[in-house]
# Entry
Amino acid sequence: MPLVRSSWQKNGSADVLDVVVISAGWAGLGVSYWLARRGLRHSVLERGRIGETWRTQRWESFRMNTPNVQTVMPGDRYEGPDPYGVFTRDQFVALLEDFAGRNGLPIEADTAVSELAREDGVYRLTTSQGTLRARKVIVASGNLNCPVRPIPPDALPPDLCQIDASGYRSAADLPGGAVLVVGSGQSGAQIVEELAEAGRTVFLATSRVGRLPRRYRGRDIMIWLLESGLLDVRREEVIRLAGRIPPRGVLGSEHTISLQGLGAQGIVLLGRLTGVAGGGRLSFADDLETNVRFADEASDNAKRHIDDYIGRTGIDAPVSQPDPAETVAWRRPDPAINSLDLSLSGITSLVWCTGFKGDFSFMRLPGALDAAGQPVHADGVGVLPGLYFAGLDFASTRKSGIILAITEEAPRLVEHLIGHS
# Structure
């Protein structure tokens, strides 16, 4: 189905739109749906194609972490044959394209925004296709699209292949030899498992990240988390408990992934990467067991929360069953590996899985970003009049940043926008 084109290119930059949405991912399409329902003339600017980040920053075998029944856009519900299966990368992109087409959303593809400024109470957007103006702007590019590395690339040997999780595609694309993956969060845990299954020798520099079981007491864990209210915990409470916004717990797309399970597969587990010495020698903290224990405790805490919920509500749920990934005996390196010579270990590739931040460098709006270049907002509402952010991780609650959140976030932001016109 062809997309509806917005009118700004026809009428020129003097034409002021009600709203411009930046990025046609799930967040941008979600708010566009509600803007259209409320009759607001708007355009969705996308630097590439619909779902560009999902197309270009996910590996080939990538699968969603939410079950299909929760991977839905506003106004939709899953009606397929596999509600508790998971979409592949390409299936999810097809879902976004179908949603935009069915709803006639005004997408301007191949329209990169190079500057967002504000003049005389109106926002001016400079793009690769020209300039346009809007009374309101919703930045929906999210805050997890720009990889972060703790060590500059030139600190390591020049013949070492270095890529970020967003640049990884498959084991076959890496040079022959062993692979070091730094970071054991969501991406790192899934990538090392794929590399091991491909027969590669893999080293994993672990980190302090929680874990969730894929299933518990007869249900997918995400169903329990949503129903029990754990995903509705406010951002402020998360920070109070953890002292910061923590990385999300590791959740395998189709089964539980644990550090001990990875070790049992032959992956060499290391502590946190702490530094690089001359000649390609890396140093690691002596915290591997602490990291394993932290993940175990996070999983146990989630289970206790669900058990309490089941007890309070009287749900007839089966008793818990041991999860092989959590009960397997794991291989502790003996002695512990506190340093590693890349060359002597045969390591030819390093995959950085050390987190992401948002790229808001195009914004020329004093006060809109903090010292780290990230949005200043309250529940997605920016500090400048008419400025909004959609799809931010932990923007309001634990649910924020997960696809199922846009069904609530989009109408809330749009109604706030209308109420402050």
